[in-house]
Specification:
Layout (H helix, E strand, L loop, with lengths): L3 E2 L4 H12 L3 H9 L4 H7 L4 E12 L11 H13 L6 H12 L6 H11 L8 E2 L21 H14 L3 H7 L1 E12 L2 H16 L10 E2 L11 E6 L13
Parallel strand pairs: 1-2
Antiparallel strand pairs: 2-4, 3-5, 4-6
Helix pairs in contact: 1-9, 6-7
Amino acid sequence: MIPYLDCSDYETTLESISNILEIDKKSIIKSVKKNNEDIIKEKFSNKNYYCCFFHATRIFNDQEFNNGLKPLGEIIDYIWERLGVLISGDLKQWDDFRNKMDNNYFEYYHNRLYYDRLLDNNQHGPYGYLIKDVIDNPDGPVNIDYFNAPEIVDDICLTYEEYNRFNLFEKYHKISVPAIIKFRYKTNELCYIKEALNYLKKCILKQDDSPLDKGKFTGREGRILKDDILEIEIIKNWKKKVFIKNE
């Protein structure tokens, strides 16, 4: 049976590393406190394991994932179709608006971001974080509120508001919910184990300033298959984040 690295919280992380490395939990905690990675390197030996990642997003109320979690290039048409039914105008005008955005017609900041995302396959995702705690931690490395909207939806809605003075976000939020999609990825890389150990160290030693942004899934394998989606957690009592830039 292939073990899992699940960094949902401190306890699951500790349990996971213990199972993968076949080391008792007390020995792991002792090694973490002493900052000793020798025992980890000795026990790892490039064995396969499933690494769990957490994809923060906002999904439509009736959205299904029978075909898996898709990268941007495979889901962009679906996004435009779902947003298009929210406008009060002619759908031909919506198609014209999309054509203009696709060709970077508008001199708006978010049209440029949208255009760049479409052209760059490296930005197509789907993305995921190894450490669940970093997603909604106001002091963490994630300075984008993915629960408010996926970045591409953000670009479309904000550009449309500038172009047509219509608040598309208001209607979009009524038919969508914030969610965390947990999925698995088979790997034999040591880097994720090391980042999980950094997380344990942060928890044990209460190091609030310790960064936890190295364990990311960048979508390099393309679509996440349906069978690899482990859980879709709807986030309740979500409040929009306000990010304050340091002067």
